[in-house]
Design a protein that fits this description.
Layout: H1 2-10, H2 19-23, H3 39-51, H4 58-72, H5 82-88, H6 96-109, H7 112-124, H8 132-144, H9 148-160, H10 168-180, H11 184-196, H12 204-216, H13 220-232, H14 240-251, H15 256-267, H16 276-289, H17 292-309, E1 328-334, E2 341-347
Antiparallel strand pairs: 1-2
Helix pairs in contact: 1-15, 1-17, 3-5, 3-6, 4-6, 6-7, 7-8, 8-9, 9-10, 10-11, 11-12, 12-13, 13-14, 14-15, 15-16, 16-17
Length: about 350
């Protein structure tokens, strides 16, 4: 078993950070997964469509009129139609009618989501009617009211020092608030902070739990981080079958890092001989798909693996048996002010997936 562990350890590439992550095909750490789709940017989208000469459908026109009436009546807005919400996802308000409507929701009921959207419009310069200071203040008010998107964005800006010195004391409670509301990017951010001890006490157990929750919601980098923690027994017990399952999700998608780590996990199984063909296959695949660092690492261990298995390398035509596809999971964030939900569907990399 010591020989297997030695080879598996040589395949561990988890120390790569920064540019090396991207070079090895790892998910972009800066990529955001949580959609920001709500009634306010959806209404602005329709006004932008009209400005560009697009005729609205009857359903879109009816929803837009209802949105205006709800704003004038001081009532929470209704969720937009699914296709419209998808088109307006992550849109920043840019039209005058969109700003007028969002101000109505703010003035008559202090709508947190509306404050968040207008704040982002000012901060991004998409609307000329307010300063960046006013934008930050609107975002702060929305975050304090429990809007998940505002909590994450404003908290992240505080942590990054966007308003002066980095302020983790104020930032982390807001990001954690968003994470507890189901915001996937906030979950991943809390995992990173607690894993490295950034602005808070290092807590590997908490970090692993946040990575697990984010992985269940399709956050790919969290899948890798959770794998590394399982593989190393950080914050959780070592569980090589689970580690192999997580790595296989990425390996099957052609990711060299996932292919090397899958080989590493299988090598540490109680009976690695049963996986000899698969291990050699993934080592070959990792070398073919990886960067220079991955190739160098595989070249160091591949001859040893072949020798220990007392077998020739598999032919290029050999492939693992088809695996069960990752299930799709729908999760929602809840606006604490209005009670409205924002839902998204993504791969659940954690449960009963490709394994």
């Amino acid at each position: 078993m010591k020989f297997w562990s030695k080879i598996a350890g040589a395949l561990c590439l988890s120390g790569m950070v920064g540019a090396a992550w991207a070079a090895s095909g790892l998910p972009d750490p800066a990529k955001l997964y949580q959609p920001r789709a709500n009634c306010h940017n959806a209404y602005d989208q329709l006004n932008d469509d009209l400005d560009k000469g697009r005729k609205l459908s009857a359903d879109e026109e009816a929803w837009a009129r209802a949105h205006e009436n709800l704003g004038n009546a001081g009532k929470p807005c209704a969720a937009p139609p699914a296709r419209l919400a998808e088109r307006a996802n992550n849109r920043v308000i840019s039209t005058s009618y969109g700003e007028k409507a969002v101000r109505s929701f703010i003035d008559k009921q202090g709508d947190a989501s509306a404050q968040s959207e207008l704040g982002l419009a000012f901060l991004s310069g998409m609307r000329p009617g307010g300063s960046t200071q006013q934008g930050a203040e609107l975002l702060r008010k929305a975050a304090e009211k429990g809007d998940p998107s505002a909590s994450f964005i404003y908290g992240s800006m505080l942590a990054q020092g966007s308003f002066g010195a980095k302020d983790y004391k104020r930032a982390l409670p807001l990001i954690e608030q968003a994470a507890k509301s189901g915001h996937v990017d906030a979950m991943a951010r809390m995992a990173t902070y607690t894993y490295y001890g950034i602005g808070t006490k290092k807590d590997l157990k908490a970090a692993f739990d946040w990575y697990r929750q984010a992985a269940e919601r399709g956050h790919e980098l969290s899948v890798f981080m959770a794998f590394n923690m399982i593989n190393a027994g950080e914050g959780t017990k070592k569980d090589f079958p689970l580690a192999a399952q997580l790595a296989r999700n990425m390996a099957n998608e052609g990711n060299a890092y996932g292919q090397a780590m899958l080989a590493s996990a299988l090598l540490q199984d109680k009976n690695p001989m049963q996986y000899k063909d698969e291990i050699l296959h993934w080592l070959q695949a990792a070398r073919a798909n990886g960067d220079d660092k991955v190739k160098t690492t595989v070249d160091q261990v591949y001859p040893q693996a072949v020798k220990l298995f007392s077998a020739r390398a598999p032919s290029p035509a050999w492939r693992p048996a088809p695996r069960k596809a990752c299930p799709i999971k729908t999760v929602c964030t809840v606006n604490h002010y209005s009670g409205l939900q924002s839902c998204t569907s993504a791969k659940d990399y954690w449960n009963d997936c490709d394994g």
